[in-house]
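PROTOCOL LOG
Step 1. Enter all chains and additional molecules of the complex.
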Amino acid sequence: GAVVSQHPSRVICKSGTSVKIECRSLDFQATTMFWYRQFPKKSLMLMATSNEGSKATYEQGVEKDKFLINHASLTLSTLTVTSAHPEDSSFYICSASPFGGLSNQPQHFGDGTRLSIL
Amino acid sequence: EDKVVQSPLSLVVHEGDTVTLNCSYEVTNFRSLLWYKQEKKAPTFLFMLTSSGIEKKSGRLSSILDKKELFSILNITATQTGDSAVYLCVLRGQGGSEKLVFGKGTKLTVNP
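Step 2. Run joint prediction.
Step 3. Record the structure below.
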């Protein structure tokens, strides 16, 4: 079945550091991937839609200069949290589905990245 | 505004019990309804429902969609402690949109 791999699974770093999170579709191509953020005991909140070969689409209230998204190939999207601060600490999850928006395949999620900024 | 409401928000049962998780929605023109299970990591896919009245089954879990009543249920029979998780009901948009609308989830705790 479709597998989405996310790396790293856990990051602990100092305030001011930039952190890059990778999301890969392992056995399918994904023209679109999604990045979510999840706060404790809350549901997933869509941050942005990552589009291969073009600019990402950000949800209202999400700073695009803070959360840089690059989708350079059909199997890889990256989210970079720039100059991270403690309030950026959260669980970040990506998702993708085979064949993108025209498919009837479910979205599959990566295992998530727990980011802790000290 | 599109909305997905899950109930109950929290449920505690004993091993062997049968549970029914509810999902009602107010979403215009959705393509499919999905159920996911989330433990400590990211959600794992359980079912995708597109047609009304057709039950999907996987082991002790089953789910069905009623498009007339705008409702779906997820049943788990003979629950086990490993079923403890948050169960998410999610709707996916029509056409080329992949945007998902999430319910808040039902937290199921199965005690031995």
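Step 4. Note key features.
Chain A touches chain B at residues 6, 32, 34, 42-44, 46, 49, 93, 95, 97, 100-102, 104, 106-112 (CB under 8 Å).
The CA atoms of residues 39 and 99 of chain A lie 29 Å apart.
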